Amino acid sequence: MIKSLTVPQRTRARVGARDLLWLAWRQHRWVILSGAVLVAVLCGYMLSNEAGIVPVTYQSCGPLCTELFGRFPEQSAAADVQLWLATGFGGLVGVFWAAPLVAREFEQGTQLLAWSQDVSARRWLVGKVVVLAVAAVGFAAVLGVVAGGLVGRLASGDPTFYSAFSGTRFEASASLQASFALFGFALGLAASVLLRRTIPAMGVTLVLFAGVRGAVSLLRLHYLPPIQLLVPVGGNTPVATAGRVILSWDMVNTAGQVVTAIPANCMLPGTYTEAVMNACLVRNGILHNLVVYQPADRLPTFRLIETGIFVVLAVALFAVTWLWLRRSTVRGTR
User: What is the pLDDT of residue 331?
Assistant: First the structure.
């Protein structure tokens, strides 16, 4: 007599967060590893340049330092290129990591398989975002730390003329670089969900990332009201300190009005030395210069403000992506 065998039925457990994270890592590990290699190479490039910079000021440098500071412009120019590459990392993340993420699923028609009854579109997306965004922000923070060290070394080598407020030097910060990467990823993801085409999403991400970065950079010197200081013509002023950025420097007459042009009689031959020129200006009633500037000690505050701007933009883009994806997917998915 043959006994019948009863096989107990097993209900498949719901896909957990750990499973989604592991799947995201398996699918995108080569992208993440290639990003790690890129960051390591760029960091090594910046560290090698930083190692050749000796922090000696021009004021204390004698004739024997000519050779040292003959090399300084080359190191400064190389640093500008390195900083430009570092600050563009967030754009690369947005264009090549985030923009194809959802658009590729729609183009290949695999979203129906990826967003099955076990894994909804939103849960699937969260797993991808956590793995990729965390990696991108971490890599960007490392770049920011190394770039900040390079800028600090250059500023100590030439404290009067090398201001960290300028251009990509301002962006040499771990918090700023992390916020750029987060914003770039959120922007690329939003473009991916809204456009559903990889190439257009990548193009829009690149243009908007560059445009927003450029627009915000025009505002950064005005996050706080600048300091205004009246400086006697020919006199010393505490504004001439290392690291500050001067927004304007105008001549002011005795009535407190800005003088836009040097008086004609001060432009005659024989008035080209500084002392003679200053005496001529005083005779014409121009007693002061109005200096409008941002002091060097505001740099950390300005960086924190700009970090907050990009974090808020990233959160807003993530919210748009989440709501749009929820609206566009099939009813009943979790």
Answer: 41
Instruction: Give me the numbers of helices (H) and strands (E) for the chain, helices first please.
Output: 11, 4
- Of all helices (H) and strands (E), which one includes residue 258? strand 258-259
Cβ–Cβ under 8 Å, residues 113 and 138: no
CA distance 231 to 218: 27
Angle subtended by helix axes 174-195 and 198-219, to nearest 10: 140
Distance of CA 196 to CAs 95, 124, 181, Å? 14, 16, 22
Q: Determine how many CB atoms are found less than 10 A away from the CB of residue 334.
A: 11
Q: Is 327 helix (H, G, I), strand (E, B) or coil?
A: helix
206, containing H or E segment: helix 198-219
Residue range 161-196, pLDDT digits in tens: 667 787 788 999 999 999 999 999 999 999 998 998
Could you tell me if 235 and 281 are in contact, meaning their C-beta atoms sit under 8 angstroms apart?
no
Strand order, beta sheet including 245-253: 227-232, 286-294, 245-253, 258-259
| CB-based contacts of 138, cutoff 8 Å, min separation 6 | 178
Query: Given the structure tokens 């990003």, which residue do they identify?
Result: 35
Burial readout 162-192 (b: 16 or more C-beta within 10 A, e: otherwise): bbbbeebbbbbbbbbbbbbbbbbbbbbbbbb
**H/E segment holding residue 306:** helix 299-328
Distance separating alpha carbons of residues 142 and 222, to the nearest angstrom: 28
Rounded Cα gap, residues 201 and 100, in angstroms: 7
d(CA 150, CA 138): 19
% pLDDT > 70, the chain:
74
Residue 251's φ and ψ, nearest 5 degrees, are -80, 145
| CA-closest candidate to residue 303, choices 178, 173, 131 | 173
